[in-house]
């Protein structure tokens, strides 16, 4: 290394569909491109056993196969991939410096596609029992709760979809929602309300997750009265929304109230030469196709910026 | 060339619990994307730690009893066994460097 910083035309942060699509476009446009991913190349969609709404795959395709193929496609055009955690970014005139545990990288343009992660409940027991009964992915972990009672926390589309999925395995699914009405679309509400295994607890929050080696109970509390109850449960599936991975960007970019990056229709942020794409940008619809579209737009915008 | 060995309920005790060498067991299923992401990393580790650690794979759908015995509630889960006892439990995808650290810590 010797302190010298490696230079690229474009550095892409995040290896989900947005970042991979951006990488396909920039590397195919002959811009030297480095993609930095802290975990799995492919992003959250890797958890999807079947993606049924991505055009061109009429029989469906697994999130793993889809994103691995995107990665091969970008690599074929010359994109490089680095497994590292981005610690921070710095703007030095036209140079953007990306700091990682593996060293610093300099780019002429930056595409931020770091996605989002599941919002946590931030209650006692949650971290301790993650993977031991607390889960953020019903499609991943549902099968381990055969004939056991589980809870889903949340009231949106994702929460009800997960609750319905869990009825295939669990003996009972208690949906715990802090409001008195669901945000989920009508069709999902109707399905959930008609499902005998699903019980809804309204105006209720979870206070604590507890157990021995594994979760065996939760404490819930009514939002108005505050009276508490303990429910025997083997699994808690948390589905209360997503948090964009923008903690290290607060001081540089403009974020909306959810923490997502504000961009214009060219995926440009407030800093010239820094673009954002996918779930991490404001008003994302959180779909693979929109992430891919964002990535393409950000890549073309980055190319124009570099050409100017 | 050392490759991970598929282990079932029938031979788990013989291959893992009674093994003299430390064993890393990869609990996985075909429908699990992150498991498919971990698999090539485990293959590489099997080569890197050839002669020091043996590597096994348990399909949790085909071997639910082993999975439940070790409290698997999320996959991929990697468990490192030493003298028949689990000494390290890694849930979810981890990059190779991090897995190496866990292996070295368990070996040390």
Q: How many angstroms does the end-to-end distance of chain A come to?
A: 31 Å
> What count of structural domains of chain A?
2
Q: Helix-strand pattern of chain A, N to C? A: EHEHEEEEEEHEHEHEEEEEEEH
Biggest interface and residues each = A-B, 26 and 23 residues
**What is the N-to-C order of secondary-structure elements of chain B (H for helix, E for strand)?**
EHEHEHEEH
Task: Report the average pLDDT across residues of chain A.
Answer: 94
At CATH level 3, the topology of the largest domain in chain A is: FAD/NAD(P)-binding domain
Specify the biggest β-sheet of chain B. Answer: 5 strands, mixed
Termini gap of chain B: 24 Å
Number of strands of chain A: 17
State the name of the first-level CATH class of chain B: Alpha Beta
In CATH terms, the superfamily of the largest domain in chain A is: FAD/NAD(P)-binding domain
Return residue spans of chain B where pLDDT drops below 50 for at least 5 consecutive residues.
none
| Secondary structure tally, helices of chain B | 4
Shape of chain B: globular
CATH architecture of the largest domain in chain A: 3-Layer(bba) Sandwich
CATH class wording of the largest domain in chain A: Alpha Beta
Number of domains of chain B: 1
Number of helical stretches of at least 4 residues of chain A = 6
Number of strands of chain B: 5
Helix/strand/pairing category of chain A: alpha/beta
